[in-house]
Design brief:
By secondary structure, the chain is of the alpha+beta class. It has ten helices and 36 strands. It folds into four domains: 199 residues, tricorn interacting facor f3 domain (Immunoglobulin-like); 91 residues, no CATH class; 90 residues, Sandwich (Immunoglobulin-like), CATH 2.60.40.1910; 82 residues, Immunoglobulin-like, CATH 2.60.40.3080.
Amino acid sequence: MKKLFLTLFTLLSLISYTQQSEVHVHDRHCRHYPEQTDTPKFAWRSDWQSQLVHNYDVNFYFLDIEVSNMNINVSGVVEIQGKVVAPLLDTFAFELIQSMNVTAFTFNGVSYTQFTREGDNVLVPVASLPQGESFIARITYGGTPPTGGFFAGVTNAYSSVFQKNVTWTLSEPFSAKSWFPCKQDLPDKADSVWVFLTTPIGTKAGSQGLLTNVTTLPSGKPRYEWKSNYPTAYYLISFAVADYQEYNVYAKPAELQGDSILVQNFVYNHPNFLPQYQNSINAVVPMIELFSDIYKLYPFYEEKYGHCISQLGGGMEHQTMTTLGSLGFNLVAHELGHMWFGDNVTCATWSDIWINEGFATYSNYLAQEMINGWNAGQSFMIGTQNNVTSQNGGSVYVPPTEVTQENVWRIFNGRLSYDKGAAIIHTLRHEINNDDLFFQVMNTFQNQFADSTATGDDFRMVAEAVTGMDFEQFFDQWYYGEGFPRYAIEWYMEGQNVHLNVTQTTSSSTPLFKMTLDYKLTFIDGTSTVVRLYQDANLNQFNVPVDKEVVAVAVDPDNWTFEKVNSILVTVPQTENSAYFTYGPNPVNDKLNVYLLNSNNSNYKLFLTDLSGKVVLHQSFSEMQYQLDLSDLASGSYLLKITDGSNSFTRKIVR
């Protein structure tokens, strides 16, 4: 954490500061936007959170606020009900950025006018309460929060296509405090949330839960009264307001035996909108039914699912009512998947964002595969895996030191948190090799951590308990580790066996990926079979019995795992006393690993020649595994020869 500059105030109204807007190009949050490389500048941020907010648990948020589709102003009253968990609570702390003014505060009905600001924390000395006591805090506040950029908290924009002004919120991960008083703590979900939204005449406002009433106030303005009785994380509380029309459809998961789930959509009130997007909205119905079947029943079925349209560059999975900027199949499926992974079960820390984004991305894949067909799923997964292997390093787990407000794009890194996160779930499914068991893992995880939070290790423990398999190594290498495997494969037929010498190197710091890899063997008669072989060393030699001649070998034909295959070479049978060797990677960048397969502890000589026969490297060694440094070698093709004085073998490499 950075050093904190503490400014204390004792006042009735709090000083407002002029803020600079953050300028940011929209990322792929949640799905399908170019990877972001610059760093957002949060002028209003504080890098820390007062420990005093952890002296209580939140039971209930009640937001009664006025908002507009024409600006980002927010004002009104927020009530926080909770229970004391510390031995004693004598200071009530909440989070609210400094540009939002607090004008009144009561605690259990008593008014307090003395409070201080420490960064984005508001600290109010109150009458002491012992552990276990309940309280009601009411904060009257208002102001114009800073805006600009994807994670701005509150944003206003204009749709030139549909001629509508729209205002929406996006509080993930640290911006709820920019528009309402709150406690930004992932494990402390509120048991229930009410959001009452007073808006300009002629507009509608969407939020989570059920729309229980629309009250016309004396001013003529409508107040939309949304209530949810499901536990909700602070960043999933939302609103969107515009000149909307309402379009509703219904999903009927099999478990409800004919009953239905409301899918409530607030879309632009323009004659061209529904004709253009109605089918895209309707497409969410089979998705809800699919996920209810393969995971568990839609977690918030007693309330609704829905969408609020905005100018957001992507989507945000606000609980029961996603905010969307478009209605493409992948984006809709991804955000819906969050209702299970992210909303019902939420990441316990931002380091474990995989629980949200990796699983939502994999939900997107499953929707493609199971609704649009095998080829659509393959296309999606290949694109996902190719993005993962487009760079060499990076872990799915976000180290805690990298979870900072100025580094928010590391948390929501599209290649790592989203695509690599989804790809390792696909690889885990392949390791389990039993879809009934795999989806039982998903169901058990959803039920065990419903309405709560979980870490990546929590998911691992569920997977181990359900399958009886040990996944510690799997998580060490794929979740916490970096990079991916690279393969160089040599194979040959000998009698009724196909022999495969498989060399694995890796793209980054993880030295070995122990994994099951599929090999497709194509026979001389045009038929084929797939065999599963387990790689547990950097060099493995496999002998596979076959009853026909093999003419071709392909790796991972159905794209279950993600790796790069540098070479697949057909070679000659190995003789009993030869100094036969294999090597990798090929092509090679700087380091070439040479593996002797049948060492007789001789002293070996190694020669590297160019294609004209000129020796460019000459070394001696006796190790079973030997590494060559080729960093000074010019690019091109070379011949690698190894001899023990009696036998010699030559292979071609590319630098």
